[in-house]
Description:
51% of the residues lie in helices and 12% in strands. By secondary structure, the chain is an alpha/beta fold.
Amino acid sequence: MIRILVADDHTVVREGVKQILSAQSDIVVEDEAEDGKETLEKVLRGSFDMVLLDISMPGRGGLEVLEDILKSKPKLPVLILSMHPEEQYAVRALRAGALGYLTKASAAHELIGAIRKVSRGGKYVTASLAEKLAVALDSKADKQLHDRLSTREYQVMLMLASGKSVSEIARELCLSVKTISTYRIRVMNKMGMKKNAELTFYAMNHRLIDSY
Length: 212
């Protein structure tokens, strides 16, 4: 039996995952968590075969939680299930130690197959993601400006590029406006930019956000 911890801040997503998996005799949702803090607490207390982890959660984001999980339980398989397209977070998630990345638009059979593979310690990536990963791991390939950013800086950069204000980001991430302002300054310095519009142009050109 594959015992799963489902970590997502949306109740409807957690219920949807449980409904999809309910017909599988070899998979059971053992527990669930709605933010990073609760996820880590349950990982430390419980005994799971894998974690199904969202990226966008209040407080510590999914990639930061992923790092925390692997520090305490390095052999615990983690599969990312995210609303964000592969271009935004997939390579970064795999580099951080996730064994797979799926978008929430994936078909139910893909999710079930990915859970079975990842729970056994295998890696689950789509063909398109495998290609992106190969390019990212090529030491001769030119590194992108956004590769210089930390996990949190990258998250803030995407939100700024999407048109969100500092106060909106602070509210969404449950952080102070001052903290987000500091992250914005770091992002601008590392990427050599001065205006949010430059971030938007860059992110659109690199397909990190949708173009309109």
